[in-house]
Amino acid sequence: MSDIVLFVCTGNVCRSPMAEALLRKALPLESPWRIASAGLFAVEGCPASANAVKAAAEVGCDLSAHLSRPLSAQLVRQSTVILTMTDAHMQQIAARFPESDGKLHLLIAFDSEALPKSSHVDDPYSGSLEDYRRCRDTMLKTIPGIVRFLAKTRNYQTHTSNKENTHDR
Q1: The CATH number of the domain where 140 resides is what?
Q2: Which residue among 15, 61, 111, 136 is the active-site one?
């Protein structure tokens, strides 16, 4: 069974699909992590916005098959790590899904160079291609920190599971 990293934004047509694709590309093929995305107010089955597809393609990511989906209790339960684009997203998820406790993280917190006042990833929805590029580049800066975090999380879980398995014998 693999662990799930879930990116959450508002509509699941811009930020979270780009973040999903960026992390998927950064992880090795043999990674135990599955990467997914959803939106707090997403409409089921919408494609990624045209500029999200273009901005992602410029860095070797393909969003052409992406279809939006709303965040559900089942997705929250199945996810090990949930990364949000804004503090407001984090608060809404915590309020709607108590099972998210301990799983929520603000995406921008993984960028060691982000300004302390930066608490969110700007929504480029209906903006220019340059707006989408800025958004993508902001998220790209978080990817190395996320990869390090996932490695530590996975090592901790494996270590804990091994201790529990040994203890049960």
Answers
A1: 3.40.50.2300
A2: 15
